[in-house]
Recover the amino acids of this structure.
């Protein structure tokens, strides 16, 4: 029983990370057909900026804030320059374009930071583990879950209780009709890139704090996980992103626990295969594609 | 040209290599109601898209209240007082009725101060609920739950939230039972009395002619006929024979 | 009077027309081969490896194009087939005695069989094609972007399997001792063969069925074309060609690990295919040539080159940057690539004033779409298609 609870906690932590990533991806996708292959590079850049800020002796909360803000800015810049010209392009064209953007961002990171791994130093408290009721509660995992809940809550309020959130939801469902009402597609697009970037900034710090080190080529893992989560849950809506992320996390954690030690290395392959199998029965994802956010 | 609230001058427009509108011109005077008639594919919706700003004409001009708005993007036109109720209604099905109405008021934000906007939004909601009481009782329901006729009412009400001077309607009775269509036109009559100028795109000739002052007919992208509604009503058979326009069954009361 | 050499979107009618359709790409391949050999002799073998790799890249791009051009699905996972081909050919070409030391746990059948070209090439291609069969049944029913993402998953799965199957592949460590049998002859000979086969596929009824599904899935299925088989044939062929490329690559490198076949390897072929034009075999060849020359120049720049009185040296990784920018620029301003859907056509009948150009089967006009199909054909059953105005 304790073991199950432990697994659930681990799954929630891993799943929350993936859900956040999927959320960042899906927000942009809901407004334009972009599934952003360069999203992982946003996390990488956030981690590098964190390292720079830590080296500048900034206290941890300011590091996180700095990363969130700079990632939001970077995302808006990339969105404006690289993706806005492709506003009406079909999804596959945008996917390939984002591949190109990933290359450019990666080269920039190599140019500035070099190819060698850099370590992201975290405050000691982050590595501690609380032991309670027979459970292992790593602070890092708890932080992730709390952060995710905060983000989901904030996003819910913004989307459902503010005037601007209403405009985003309208533009996500019917962009042309929204224009007829006076909703500016540019403003909505930039806002969505900003939010998506902010999320990437936060997750970047959390992710690489746990992994420990980052290189300019570390973007593949987060990107893949985000892609699988978004396709698993259903493209273009918030529920799909969260469900997809959590299910992916659960799959990973429980597979890891259930597999015999000899087969653990195959976890990635099995998870992917499972996702493809699910897609065969539900091609639109677990939650499915909905009209709007 | 002066004195007209909306003027379309020699507009040529289309999609990727396919010319749909070939030098179409149209004028609307304040307080007037004009119908644009024509068979499927004649270019009526394309014309509406040009006027609303969703499609940029290759040639020609669009003027609103004497000002050239050809280069004005679609999201700014509602704020000027030119609003389109799109074909198929275009309601946001993931939003509630009230949320749909509130989105319709978005363009007000650029027009005036925040407090004035709040006042106009409140006034707009009140007008909408007065005109269409069913919307008020269900205002927290999703827009998708409404019947066809109610959806059309919501679409019109949403357009009114922008406090428009000119209202464009693209096939307002599409998919609606004739009786419901009559209700729609009754509502439009009320709006005319309130001073609104209207352009209605219709495939159903008789109903439109019973409502508007003037009508023009588009055929294959050109305006081939334009006259007062009265004169055109007399030549109904002409319209049917030459332009393939439909007239509907006899039991319609206008 | 028709031109002898021209660019066309489709081929002339009839069996003779089929041969004409073959001739253009084939001659282009032969031309490239000739030029490559010329370069070899002129440089006296100093850049022999570069020419070889160019030839292998050309094969990969042709393979890639055969799938993407005919189905409209952009595969990000083709590197997986390269890996399958490389490992299948590689393992079985390591001399038996060395193999016993390197892979002691290898099953007897695999441990005792030693092969060399051309059998290794056929084996590599077949292994990849079999992988495509299994994967295709799972993936090819999905549409558009979902299928593309699924191919990425395929790459991860294959990579994971290769790393885990220690006893067969040496896991994450390098497989070494592969027989170095790749020569210009095998590379460019294979290129000519795969170009011919790809052209045959394109102009056959299989190619047509795949493109019908690509352009209008609903109409095609209503006409009796079944989606999965229509896509599966180009997928398996494309995998076969890519597998052959991988086998050639393996027997050139002689040592490699699963790391040699992952995401960074996607870029090259993708850029070459897009620049040349995803719609045609001629485009694939043109793109491969153009980008190979470009990357070679950039590589020179990275190691420093004299430009007049100055010594210019570009920072490392600049090729990545240029390729990325080139990719974005192409998609922005000429998404159909250099040749678009046009194939080079050489019609010798025109020399004799014969051979009229009545199209065999007129195909749809190209739009600015990357796969030169009408807007979002592959996406039509994707909800996102409602975005199109």
């Amino acid at each position: 029983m304790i073991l199950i609870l432990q697994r659930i906690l681990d799954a929630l932590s891993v799943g929350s990370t993936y859900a956040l990533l999927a959320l960042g991806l899906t927000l942009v996708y809901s407004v334009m057909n972009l599934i952003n292959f360069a999203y992982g590079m946003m996390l990488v850049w956030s981690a590098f900026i964190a390292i720079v800020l830590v080296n500048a002796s900034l206290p941890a909360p300011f590091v996180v804030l700095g990363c969130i803000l700079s990632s939001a800015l970077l995302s808006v810049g990339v969105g404006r320059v690289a993706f806005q010209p492709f506003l009406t392009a079909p999804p596959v064209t945008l996917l390939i374009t984002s591949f190109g953007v990933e290359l450019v961002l990666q080269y920039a990171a190599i140019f500035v930071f070099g190819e060698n791994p850099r370590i992201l130093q975290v405050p000691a408290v982050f590595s501690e583990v609380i032991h309670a009721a027979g459970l292992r509660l790593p602070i890092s995992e708890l932080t992730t879950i709390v952060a995710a809940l905060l983000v989901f809550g904030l996003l819910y309020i913004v989307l459902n209780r503010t005037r601007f959130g209403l405009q985003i939801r309208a533009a996500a469902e019917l962009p042309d009709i929204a224009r007829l009402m006076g909703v500016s597609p540019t403003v909505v697009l930039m806002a969505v890139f900003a939010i998506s970037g902010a999320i990437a900034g936060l997750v970047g710090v959390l992710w690489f704090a746990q992994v420990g080190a980052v290189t300019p080529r570390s973007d593949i893992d987060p990107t893949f996980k985000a892609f699988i989560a978004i396709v698993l849950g259903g493209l273009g809506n918030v529920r799909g992103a969260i469900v997809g992320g959590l299910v992916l996390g659960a799959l990973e954690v429980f597979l890891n626990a259930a597999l015999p030690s000899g087969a653990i290395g195959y976890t990635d392959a099995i998870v992917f295969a499972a996702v493809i199998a699910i897609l065969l029965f539900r091609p639109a994802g677990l939650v499915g594609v909905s009209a709007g956010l | 040209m002066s004195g007209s609230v909306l003027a379309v001058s020699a507009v040529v427009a289309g999609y990727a290599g396919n010319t749909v509108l070939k030098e179409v011109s149209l004028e609307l005077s304040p307080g007037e109601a004009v119908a644009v008639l024509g068979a499927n594919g004649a270019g009526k919706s394309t014309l509406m898209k040009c006027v609303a700003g969703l499609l940029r004409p290759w040639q020609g001009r669009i003027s609103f209240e004497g000002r050239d708005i050809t280069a004005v993007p679609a999201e700014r036109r509602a704020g000027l007082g030119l609003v389109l109720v799109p074909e198929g209604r275009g309601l946001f099905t993931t939003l509630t009725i009230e949320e749909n109405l509130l989105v319709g008021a978005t363009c007000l934000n650029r027009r005036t101060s925040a407090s004035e906007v709040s006042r106009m939004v409140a006034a707009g909601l009140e007008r909408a609920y007065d005109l269409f009481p069913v919307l008020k009782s269900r205002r927290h329901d999703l827009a998708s739950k409404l019947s066809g006729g109610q959806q059309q009412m919501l679409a019109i009400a949403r357009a009114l939230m922008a406090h428009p001077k000119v209202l464009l309607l693209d096939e307002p009775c599409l998919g609606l039972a004739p009786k419901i269509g009559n209700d729609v036109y009754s509502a439009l009559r009320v709006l005319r009395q309130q001073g609104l100028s209207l352009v209605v795109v219709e495939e159903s000739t008789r109903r439109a002619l019973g409502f508007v002052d003037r009508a023009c007919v588009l055929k294959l992208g050109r305006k081939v006929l334009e006259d007062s509604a009265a004169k055109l009503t007399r030549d109904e058979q002409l319209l049917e024979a030459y332009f393939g326009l439909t007239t509907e069954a006899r039991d319609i009361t206008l | 009077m028709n031109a002898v050499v021209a660019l066309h979107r489709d081929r002339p009618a009839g069996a003779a027309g089929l041969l004409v359709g073959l001739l253009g790409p084939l001659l282009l391949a032969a031309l490239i081969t000739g030029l490559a050999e010329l370069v070899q002799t002129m440089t006296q073998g100093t850049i022999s490896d570069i020419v070889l790799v160019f030839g292998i890249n050309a094969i990969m791009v042709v393979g890639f194009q055969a799938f993407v051009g005919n189905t409209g699905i952009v595969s990000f996972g083709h590197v997986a087939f390269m890996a399958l081909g490389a490992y299948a050919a590689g393992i079985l070409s390591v001399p038996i005695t060395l193999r016993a030391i390197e892979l002691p746990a290898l099953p007897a059948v695999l441990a005792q069989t030693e092969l060399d070209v051309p059998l290794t090439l056929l084996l590599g291609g077949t292994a990849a094609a079999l992988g495509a069969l299994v994967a295709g049944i799972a993936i090819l029913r999905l549409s558009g972007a979902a299928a593309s993402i699924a191919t990425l998953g395929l790459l991860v799965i294959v990579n994971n399997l290769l790393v885990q199957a220690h006893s067969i592949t040496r896991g994450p460590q390098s497989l070494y001792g592969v027989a170095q049998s790749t020569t210009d002859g095998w590379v460019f000979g294979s290129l000519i063969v795969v170009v011919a086969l790809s052209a045959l596929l394109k102009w056959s009824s299989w190619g047509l069925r795949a493109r019908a599904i690509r352009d209008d899935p609903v109409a095609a299925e209503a006409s009796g074309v079944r989606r999965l088989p229509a896509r599966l044939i180009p997928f398996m062929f494309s995998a076969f060609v890519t597998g052959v490329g991988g086998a050639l690559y393996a027997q050139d490198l002689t040592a490699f690990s699963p790391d040699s076949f992952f995401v960074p390897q996607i870029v090259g072929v993708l850029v070459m295919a897009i620049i040349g034009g995803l719609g045609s075999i001629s485009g694939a060849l043109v793109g491969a040539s153009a980008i190979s020359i470009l990357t070679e120049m950039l590589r020179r720049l990275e190691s420093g080159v004299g430009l007049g009185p100055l010594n210019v040296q570009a920072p490392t990784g600049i090729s990545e940057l240029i390729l990325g920018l080139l990719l974005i620029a192409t998609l922005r301003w000429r998404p159909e690539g250099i040749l678009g859907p046009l194939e080079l056509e050489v019609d010798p009948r025109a020399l004799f004033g014969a051979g009229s150009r009545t199209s065999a089967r007129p195909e749809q006009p190209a739009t600015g779409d990357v796969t030169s199909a009408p807007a979002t054909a592959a996406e039509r059953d994707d909800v996102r298609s409602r975005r199109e105005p």
